[in-house]
């Protein structure tokens, strides 16, 4: 039997999973690490923590599994996107990584837009200048830490730093590189135009590969530490969402997935490039060679429910503790007794501003229609419906762009909630399914490793072999419910337009 390893380098922890060639989990291990906020709006992590977590978790899964090292044919790495890792001439880390959720680069985004032009930037990189993306972070270091910028000889993304540790190779791949805002996304290569306009030396950047391509093999010293073989290939891997797409089988036109974690994502595969000129959704190269994905992101999906429970759900929490059950069992039971529309109560989930469909940092959450008749059950249903309306906004933009999303998978924490999955199916008007595997990105990059190692001829074929739908959890749309949801969704969409200017006014106070 052949085996594959998938590493998922997250913001809070790294998880490493060993799979057999059929996609079955053989062993897994995880290790947490801290996030640092030296100033308001800043977010940093130490790349050395990722290095140590990767080596430790690889060692654990190899040892615990008892699998022969030579039978582990390939390794893939997924990870948080957009983070900036800067190395000196010796390959040592210069400063902590500025990661995806850092918001310090507003001025640098303005600088990028001024130098390249808003329209041209979207044409090349498929996205407007974003504070979370890597290019603005590079400019921030140059503008504010010139001594560190002068030392820099290599710029890597988080997962690509771990690749460097494992293989000694400076490499990246198209899906993660798409989020740097330095890649010509239609052409799948570094953009000389953007680099020239921003004054960034191309030699600082790693070689770009397709996601299933082999980028190197395990170094002898790493093989000794981990128990891997020096013949194990390391493939390009993928950014977290592109890896999750492979891990749920979203690798062909018409296929899409919805993730409800802290944020929410609606992601659709596309065999042709499609860019929204308004910048409401992100277009990146995907992990399938020669294909792309279009992705809408809502800032506070699962976070809205967490906020509700922390601030308004004390009664649910207390009852769940007394009964020894999961709090969502109680919430779901109440929601099922509450009508669609939550007795004419709507929630706008803009707790932390929004990205899709409104790229607006000033908009905020709203409970609209609240009256003395409403109960905690109505409010809970309004929150869950508001999240799903926001995700439906994302899907509607994809459909408007000609990107089909009618074969929908659900993943993330929200995928475990039957009520929420059924809401999505009813609002989307299509089936919503889940897969039996729960490893998502780790499975996705293990599949890519299987292709790179020659176990499968293509990503699509590998997914057919290694991914299985959980037919017991299939949710089919109720089109009568769809009609009712559409009536409330129309009002929901109009509310932002009514409040847009008032959001700006209250932000000034």
Overall mean pLDDT stands at 95
How far apart, in Å, are the first and last alpha carbons? 64 Å
**What share of the residues lie within helices?**
40-55%
- Helix/strand-derived category reads alpha/beta
What general form does the structure show? globular
Oligomer: single chain
Poorly predicted runs are none
Fraction of residues in β-strands: 15-25%
Radius of gyration: 23 Å
Major sheet, described briefly? 7 strands, mixed
Number of helical regions: 18
Strand count: 23
Describe the structure.
The protein is α/β, with parallel strands linked by helices and 509 residues long. 41% of the residues lie in helices and 20% in strands. The strands form seven sheets. Strands 1, 2, 3, 5, 13, 14 and 15 form a seven-stranded mixed β-sheet that branches. Helix 12 packs across helix 13 and helix 14 crosses helix 15. The longest helix has 30 residues.
What is the gist of this entry?
The chain has 509 residues and is an alpha/beta fold. The chain has 18 helices and 23 strands. The strands form seven sheets. Strands 1, 2, 3, 5, 13, 14 and 15 form a seven-stranded mixed beta sheet that branches.
């Amino acid at each position: 039997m052949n085996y594959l390893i998938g590493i998922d380098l997250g913001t809070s922890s790294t998880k490493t999973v060993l799979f057999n060639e059929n996609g079955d989990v053989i062993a897994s291990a995880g290790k947490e690490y801290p996030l640092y906020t030296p100033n308001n709006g800043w977010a940093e992590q130490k790349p050395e923590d990722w290095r140590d977590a990767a080596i430790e978790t690889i060692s654990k899964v190899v040892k615990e599994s008892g699998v022969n090292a030579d039978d582990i044919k390939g390794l893939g790495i997924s990870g948080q996107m957009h983070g900036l890792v800067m190395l000196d001439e010796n390959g040592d880390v210069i400063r902590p990584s500025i990661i995806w959720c850092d918001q310090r680069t507003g001025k640098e985004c303005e600088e990028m837009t001024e130098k390249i032009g808003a329209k041209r930037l979207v044409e090349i990189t498929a996205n407007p200048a974003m504070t979370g993306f890597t290019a603005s972070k590079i400019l921030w270091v140059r503008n504010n830490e010139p001594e560190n910028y002068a030392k820099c000889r290599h710029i890597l993304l988080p997962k690509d730093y771990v690749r460097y540790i494992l293989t000694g190779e400076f490499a990246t791949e198209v899906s993660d590189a798409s989020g740097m805002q330095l890649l010509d996304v239609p052409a799948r290569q570094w953009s000389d135009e953007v680099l020239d306009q921003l004054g960034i030396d191309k030699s600082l950047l790693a070689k770009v590969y397709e996601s299933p391509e082999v980028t190197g093999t395990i170094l002898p010293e790493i093989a000794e530490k981990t128990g891997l073989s020096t013949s194990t290939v390391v493939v390009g891997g993928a950014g977290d969402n592109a890896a999750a797409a492979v891990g749920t089988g979203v690798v062909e036109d018409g296929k899409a997935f919805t993730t409800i974690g802290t944020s929410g994502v609606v992601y659709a595969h596309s065999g042709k490039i499609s860019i929204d000129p308004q910048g409401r959704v992100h277009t990146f190269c995907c992990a399938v060679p020669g294909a792309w994905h279009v992705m809408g992101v809502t800032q506070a999906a699962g976070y809205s429910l967490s906020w509700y429970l922390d601030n308004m759900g004390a009664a649910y929490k207390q009852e769940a503790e007394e009964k020894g059950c999961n709090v969502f069992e109680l919430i779901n039971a109440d929601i099922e007794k509450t009508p669609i529309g939550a007795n004419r109560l709507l929630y706008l989930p803009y707790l932390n501003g929004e990205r899709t469909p409104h790229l607006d940092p000033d908009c905020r959450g709203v409970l609209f229609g609240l009256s003395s008749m409403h109960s905690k059950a109505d409010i809970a249903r309004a929150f869950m419906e508001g999240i799903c309306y926001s995700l439906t906004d994302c899907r509607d933009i994809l459909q408007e762009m000609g990107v089909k999303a009618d074969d929908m998978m659900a993943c993330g924490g929200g995928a475990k909630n039957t009520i929420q999955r059924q809401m999505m199916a009813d609002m989307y008007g299509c089936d919503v399914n889940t897969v039996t595997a729960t490893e998502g990105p780790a499975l996705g990059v293990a599949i890519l490793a299987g292709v790179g190692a020659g176990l499968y001829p293509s990503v699509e074929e590998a997914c057919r072999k290694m991914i299985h739908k959980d037919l017991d959890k299939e949710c089919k749309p109720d089109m009568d419910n769809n009609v009712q949801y559409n009536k409330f969704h129309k009002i929901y969409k109009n509310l932002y337009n009514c409040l847009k200017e008032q959001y700006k006014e209250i932000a000034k106070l």
